[in-house]
Amino acid sequence: MExxxxxxxxxxxxxxRWLPQLKLITRSAHRAHAESFLNASSSxxxxxxxxxxxxxxxxxxxxWDLFFRNQHYQRPPTLGITPPPPALIEYYQKxxxxxxQPAHIVPQQQGQLQPAPGYASGxxxxxxxxxxxxxxxxxxxxxxxxxxxxxxxAQLDPLGLSSADLDAERPHDLTYTFYxxxxxxxxxKFTVPQITFIGGQEKELSLREIIKRLxxxxxxxxxxxxxxxNSYEKCDxxxxxxEDPAQKKLxxxxxxRAVKRLIRAxxxxxxxxxxxxxxxxxxxxxxxxxxxxxxxxxxxxxxxGVDTVIMGMPHRGRLNVLANVTRKPLEELFxxxxxxxxxxxxxxxxxxxxxxxxxxxxLNRASNTMVKFVLVANPSHLEAVDPVVQGKTRAEQFYRGDxxxxxxxxxxxxxxxxxxxxxxxxxxxxxxxxPAYTTHGTIHIxxxxxxxxxxxxxxxxxxxxCTDVARVVNAxxxxxxxxxxxxxxxxxxxxxxxxxxxxxxxVIDLVGYRRHGHNETDEPMFTQPxxxxxxxxxxxxxxxxxxxxxxxxxxxxxxxxxxxxxxxxILDDTFANSKSSAYAKDKNxxxxxWKNFFTSKGPFPYPETGVSEETLKTIGIKAHxxxxxxxxxxxxxxVFEKRSEMLQEREVDWGLAESMAIGSVLLDGNHVRLxxxxxxxxxxxxxxxxxxxxxxxxxxxxPMNYLSPTQGHYSICNxxxxxxxxxGFELGYSITNPNSLIMWEAQFxxxxxxxxxIIDQFICSGQAKWVRQSGLxxxxxxxxxxxxxxxxxxxxxxxxxxxxxxxxxxxxxKETKYHHHTDLAMSQLDDTNLxxxxxxxxxxxxxxxxxxxxxxxxxxxxxxxxxxxxxxxxCRSTFDEMITGTSFKRIHPExxxxxxxxxxxxxxxxxxxxTYYDLIEERHKNKLDFEIAIxxxxxxxxxxxxxxxxxxxxxxxxxxxxxxxEHKNMGPYTYCKPRLACLLRSMDDPRxxxxxxxxxxxxxxxxxGIKSSHYLEQKTYMEQAMAL
Length: 1028
Ligand SMILES: Cc1ncc(C[n+]2csc(CCOP(=O)(O)OP(=O)(O)O)c2C)c(N)n1
Ligand SMILES: [Mg+2]
What we know:
Layout: E1 2-3, H1 13-16, H2 19-31, H3 40-55, H4 62-71, H5 86-94, H6 128-149, E2 189-191, E3 204-206, H7 207-218, E4 222-225, H8 232-243, H9 252-275, H10 290-303, E5 308-312, H11 318-324, H12 330-335, E6 342-343, E7 358-364, E8 369-375, H13 385-399, E9 408-415, H14 416-421, H15 423-429, E10 442-448, E11 477-481, H16 485-502, E12 506-511, H17 529-537, H18 541-551, H19 557-578, E13 583-584, H20 613-622, H21 634-648, E14 651-652, H22 654-667, E15 671-676, E16 691-692, E17 699-701, E18 714-718, H23 724-734, E19 740-745, H24 756-763, H25 766-770, E20 777-781, H26 796-802, H27 824-831, E21 835-838, H28 842-854, E22 861-865, E23 877-878, E24 891-892, E25 907-911, H29 915-925, E26 932-937, E27 939-941, H30 945-954, E28 959-967, H31 973-986, E29 995-1000, H32 1011-1026
The chain binds thiamine diphosphate and magnesium ion.
């Protein structure tokens, strides 16, 4: 039994009571400029002060000490929003604050704010300690304003042209006059408030010094956004790391290391530019700081125990990251520029060099530990790799029992335009803190060159910063000017420490520029003339930083020049070596090598996937056992009783077959993960793998994790309401270890097109582009049940169209890269890019899931799952179809009356999926059982040419018909017809020219919304199918 303890605390009614009142005060305070710092957030300051005072009364100013001692200050229980204390009420009354409010908005209840009739407006002379309080509050408010909005003034753009938040205005609250201070106050000393670390060891500072230090921290080349984080401790942690004057120092070793890294980052691009001037490389120039930033992130994390870093990134700077972060051998990179190079072991079509992945393990010198770097291959589709990286990271953590992400960590690099524009970024962020999806904090780095292709940020986003999406998960955002390497290094170090301390996401916004066009052959002056005039005059960051370091005496020029020359020699030598390479090896670019998986060469027999009757029974029983005292819903008790009856009868329905497939894979010691929206119960309430105690909140039980002590772990998890990120995540999970069954289920199949990018760019083409296999299973509910245009079609035709198989060639046994085959079915499966199935029996569903792991290779499996078949009494299988010696049937040939006299059969109907049950019912009604044979194609892709040939040969006098319930331009027809014709042609059978169609007409929409139309269409379709 498992229990989730909710950590959500709900605001109490008592605390909510104060909200409207505080709002009123806030609004009025803005109007009453003289009291403008006394806004609602002042009460937060008092809260914080009170908190400090309650720990140690000496840590607050003595006036506050007095105040708290005498006034019996009471904090509300939650929200941190505090009613003004009595002394403040008195102060408001004295200053005439309430006279400015309409009478009706002033609360009248006992204990709440009261107007003070009789007091004239205007500031009264205050007693001395009141003046001190006012000053102190003003200083606190000033500090708070810098902490909250100082970033708006930060000088983040190295070009000095733009404001990173697209707003050049100075907020009023970042001026001392806003707090009623004047020039004369600048040299007055004030106690440094406890809410800041700018004082260091000093307790008092002049206003001038306070402002200077705040400006240095918040408005120089670092802009910090963190005040929205709902945790005082976390905010304080950040404040300490940036405000404390002692914190920012890097030691000389770190500086020298960073100089060498910046040399590499800069000279690498120069070299590529010199050697292959007309090649696209999406250079990093203008944002070279990315490399030392990533490296120090990794150093810091490695020092804290991280030994696996999984990365995803777009085109920009990718080659540089490969060369200088993962340290991919330069020869392998340079090879990629050679157009004459032949693919050697590239089994597919390959990909351009700036999309390829890699996996490399090497020594990290800062921590003196081995670190594995994985750069996940990705398509052009920006940000699509984000959830894939997260899924892979989660899987790495799972397999090594790294429950808190202490060992494996992800880093995602983003472009500024893509980060703001692509919805999958948001979807991925929403996975970041979910128990079944968290990777315990990701470090996001935006390579913000302030442009997206030719589009200016002012035309590309509506949010102030390109990073604003990260605020939804309370991630701190550190903006930094990419030309100030010292600041970049500090920010990167703190970001890594944040992730390792709090296990939460963090964002580094590296604000730089793009020295050339979008790619090196583009002319940027067409569209950004002003910006590029400035860029042309901008010295490279390496030069700027090194000159600074030499001038201040931190490094010597001779040392720097020697380091530069050393790297130049490395480049020249490897370039010379790379010329001797004649082949591009795809194994060098694999992001997920599966050690020991492809060891056997074959031939492989078609796998038997049945299990012993004993195993079926054990799973059937154990999958429904409850812990002592667990109270199950009455409706489920009935469901379980029905399942028990089925077991007695040696029968299974769809749900039970699924449990048996999953259970048996678990019993073999393998891990199974099933994720998607509402998968725990199942959209159609057929699964019930997670049971909820009816009398205890958040107590649940997953019986399938209690089958045997040696079983694999079953993760079944409802996902966020996302398809793109959730499917991408599972894909990433699936590529990590081939010995697990990873499944994603769509709520209804049609929603899968929200994840089309993952299907097109990764699932169907991943192996061809990146030699990366995946055995991911997609369960897509599909079928026309009169439910209207949505929820009927999983767009089977689209998946079939994505299949790489040739419709004009009857497949023969083919050797593949890793294996040789003697079995056509296996050869086809090894050769295909997708397996697509539309299954009609529970037993076959059981087998196909088990077959995924029984194959000696991995292929994505797309299953059109049923809806009405889940409960159709005819849709049952017996144990006999699932026990040892049985296997997945690619087709179900006709097995009824028609087989008795095949020559007399007048029509052979091929169909796929649930329509089979309609067809046999109609055939029976029409008394055509001897005239019409019906064969079900269970595995559509690869197309079972061999088995279909047997049916065609058997019913040689029969007309050939393909029947489907989908519209003619949809469903399996357009895929099956040419293949049937091709097969018949290869048999010299004249029926090749006459393949009949029975089904709905072509249409624009997937299914009729009007019930009567649906039934009429169905009737017509059945008449066509039964016509002889
Ligand atoms: C989803 C998607 N849409 C469009 C493109 C075409 N495209 C390639 S790069 C690019 C601009 C990206 O800008 P940004 O994210 O700021 O990265 P940068 O190139 O500036 O580093 C565009 C629109 C793409 N690759 N992916
Ligand atoms: Mg950009």
